Amino acid sequence: MTLSRGLRRLLLAITTLALVFVYTPLALVVLNSFNANKSFAWPPQQLTLRWWKAAAQSEGARAALLVSVEVALQATAISLLLGTMAAMALQRQRFFGRNSVSLLILLPIALPGIVTGIALNNVFRTVFGLELGFLTIVVAHATFCIVTVFNNVQARLRRLGGSLEEASMDLGAGSFTTFRLVTFPLLRSALLAGGLLAFALSFDEIIVTTFTAGAREETLPLWIFNNLFRPNQAPVVNVVAAVLIVASIVPIWLAQRLSGSSNEGLTGAR
Amino acid sequence: MAVSGLLHRRPGLRVGLLLTPPMLWLGVAYLGALAALFVTAFWGQNSFTGDVERTWTLDNFRNLFTIDVYRTITVRTLGIAVLVTLLDALIAFPVALFMAKVASPRAQRLLLVAVVMPLWASYLVKAYAWRGMLGTGGLVSWVAAPFGLDTPGYGLTAVIITLAYLWLPYMILPIFAGLERLPGSLLEASADLGARSTTTLRRVVLPVVFPAIVAGSLFTFSLTLGDYIAVRIVGGANQMLGNVVYDNVGAANNLPFAAAVATIPVVVMVIYLTAVRRTGALENL
């Protein structure tokens, strides 16, 4: 080992502290969902399942969850299609403006969400004359989800190289047959991982959503935000939050299983 | 079959067909939206009806630069973004270094999951968790009390802590990826040549991971510039640029002014992106 013992111990200590820093607030939310006291003062004096029952019966939360899932599914489908096409175009050929194209794909997440939100809000209402609603949320979400699919597919294509496709072509298969029988099966797990990330990104998005949602549609983050400052709803919000924390283990586990390699699929970041 | 053969012989056509749908979407819907936003920033608002007036004016920008409140908010937002980025880089570097170069392969996998998991837990849930932590009678004040300290309460300190918390994984992951690509033999070579650990860190590790740190900073910086929710949850009465944009789209209904304010983070990010292009950070995303 090239790093000195002292340094390695220091790194371990910092990492441990960082993980405590990361997980304490999350653990607290889960614990507070059982806290009988509405003010969530620390330490909790009494535990209860009351809020979980209340949350299970909350119409608002259930409706919002449904909207969120529908939006995320549609945005994911669009970004899977467009992200894969862009990645395949960029991977195989060098052409003029290639860097600008990848920058353009990156831009919706590189620029602050508020800019994306207000720009789309403005263009939907004033240029296209659309009423804000379900459709506009989906379009907005798909726009910034393209990059996660694009990143995953591109990483996979880069690792694969083009020789298998060339072999398929040499054996007489056309472009479509090669895609169907060779490229697509090789991409499948990268597509699933990218799609999972896109789904999570859309499911969690609040800033862009505030600007592109109409008065009637409420996604789960919007519901949480709207109920956050209502004292009577705070315990129910806490339960929903706890459920979301626990549920986030599922996609992580899936992405891990799908991607094989530890890095790809999990990251892809925003 | 004929089409298929044609696509194979004409790679340019293939690229064109593949690129057209995504470019139409992003080019028209997104770049078009950005362009329209800039145009709107130069429009005015009728002070009686509140309607947007499509006449060219520089009033929005004049107000933005001359009214003290907006200058203060801009400086505050940029300051918070710089601090959050520095804090995240300071925490993320040792964590990523431990993950990449000290931990066993099994521990590395577990740590990676541990770092990524919070990314999937909702943004609002995490910001909200800090509201509970930092409130009076919350966990922070309980932990700090024996040391004679108190919670910072809701304010700018709380905003910086919360945002640094929220974006930390976005900094750890690129640095980890950068360090993973750094061959161990390079570290050994440095040690063989007599360098101490700290020298190796400064002269071998840091230069190699610098683009990765910049890549991470792109996220922490941009996400902070546009945030208006964390500051509403834990920031007390303070405002950031995002709040000004939000209030002008919603309550004040002054879209042109909101558009002018939104150009600030765009200009900052464009300058930042252009500056870091040369470091190779964009390939590290």
Automatic annotation (TrEMBL), chain A:
The chain crosses the membrane at residues 65-89, 101-120, 132-150, 190-215, 235-255. It comes from the Bacteria. Keywords: Cell membrane, Membrane, Transmembrane, Transmembrane helix, Transport. GO terms for biological process: transmembrane transport. PROSITE patterns: ABC_TM1 (PS50928). CDD domains: TM_PBP2 (cd06261). Belongs to the binding-protein-dependent transport system permease family. CysTW subfamily. This is ABC transporter permease. It comes from Nocardioides panacis.
TrEMBL record, chain B:
It comes from the Bacteria. InterPro entries: MetI-like. It is found in: Cell membrane. Keywords: Cell membrane, Membrane, Transmembrane, Transmembrane helix, Transport. GO terms for cellular component: plasma membrane. CDD domains: TM_PBP2. Belongs to the binding-protein-dependent transport system permease family. CysTW subfamily. This is ABC transporter permease. It comes from Nocardioides panacis.
